[in-house]
Amino acid sequence: MSASARLRRARRRAMTALAATSAAALTALPEQVALALGAALGAVAARCLRRRAHEALANLRLVFPERSEGECVAIWRSSCAELGRCAVEWARLPTLSTEALLERVEVIGLEHLAKAAELGRGVFAITAHYGNFEYIPAVVRGHMPGAHISVVGRTMPTPEMQAMLERRRARGGGEVIAQDARAILRALREGTVIGILIDHYTRERRGGVLVPFLGVPAWTTAGPALLALRTGAPVVPIHIHRLQNGRHRIDIEPALDLPRSGDRPRDVVTATALMNEVVGRWIREDPVPWTWSHRRFRHRPEGEVRGSPS
After folding, report:
1. Is 37 exposed, middle or buried (0-12, 13-18, 19+ CB in 10 A)?
2. d(C-alpha 125, C-alpha 27), whole Å
3. Would the pLDDT of 158 be above 80?
4. In whole angstroms, what is the distance from residue 164 CA to residue 97 CA?
5. Distance CA 265, CA 262 (A)
6. 272-307 pLDDT, tens per residue?
7. Which of 101, 124, 172, 195 has CA atoms 20 to 30 A from the CA of 178?
8. Which of 103, 87, 113, 30 lies closest to 249, judged by CA?
9. Which are the contacts of 27, defined by CB distance < 8 A and separation ≥ 6?
10. What's the rounded Cα separation, in Å, for the pair 225 and 208?
11. Domain chopping of the chain, boundaries
12. Tell me: the pLDDT tens digits for 166-222?
């Protein structure tokens, strides 16, 4: 192993140890103190992480050209504070009983997910890096104890971090599925409700298509659309947002009406654009809970024209 590889490995192990120590410390603190600390650290990060701030503000200016610079900065800082609160809640998730979790998170529209699951084809529960999305599988499992619920997740940099992530995501009673079409198809055949985040950049060579997102052409994963059209699995949009006094609300929408023209490639693109339109609506209604620092709009075509306000 080269010296640079050893250094990278050491850094990743240090990051894992820091994450584990931070999670333990946040769990030990009183909840309101921990949440306030998380928000404060997020606010500090907004001012200190210049590269992230640069990316976030560029995204905000692109998506909201009508907003002032001050408004964009305020959204970015509030978003970082919210991310800090969500990180604290994620760290504390294993300490919550199902009853305590259901008490603090109300659910609207559960009947839509139940109806989709009854078809027996599996379900794509699409969501975004929006609010405390890590609560969603555990809460849904609490309301649908007979359902098999899994989430699609990326591999973390170290086995230790991967194990930490999976322990918390398994809190929902399901497993973490790799980003692999065969594994996802197998889960759908078993009737699994599959949670998947669809809002991050996905280049063409990794199965992405270029469709509008928040009015801007953006490379977006086509996997859910492709597999849903292939299998007949319903696609149900779900998102979560924060209420007052430490409470949250999950909104579950009716299954999307996906296009089925007989032209599969065109239908995949249209269905992916439809999913982006849904996520874009959430973000436009309240931009604060979204992760603005992600490099979402990479490799846009030259001379682009802004699309619809999705």
Report:
1. middle
2. 29
3. no
4. 18
5. 9
6. 999 999 999 999 999 999 999 999 999 877 655 454
7. 101
8. 103
9. 34, 91, 92, 95
10. 11
11. 3-285
12. 666 665 556 788 888 899 999 999 999 999 999 999 998 888 999 999 999 999 999
Query: How confident is the prediction for the chain on average, in pLDDT?
Result: 89
Beta strands 149-152; 193-197: pairing state: parallel
Question: Tens digits of per-residue pLDDT, 69-110?
Answer: 999 999 999 999 999 999 999 889 888 899 999 999 999 999
pTM of the model: 0.89
| Cβ-Cβ contacts under 8 Å for 157 (sequence gap 6 or more) | 12, 15
> How many CA atoms within 13 Å lie on the side-chain side of 204?
7
Alpha-carbon distances, residue 25 vs 19, 20, 170, 178, 180 (angstroms): 10, 9, 21, 30, 35
Q: Position 30: which residue type?
A: P
- Residue 243 exposed, middle or buried by CB count within 10 Å (0-12, 13-18, 19+): exposed
SS3 161: helix
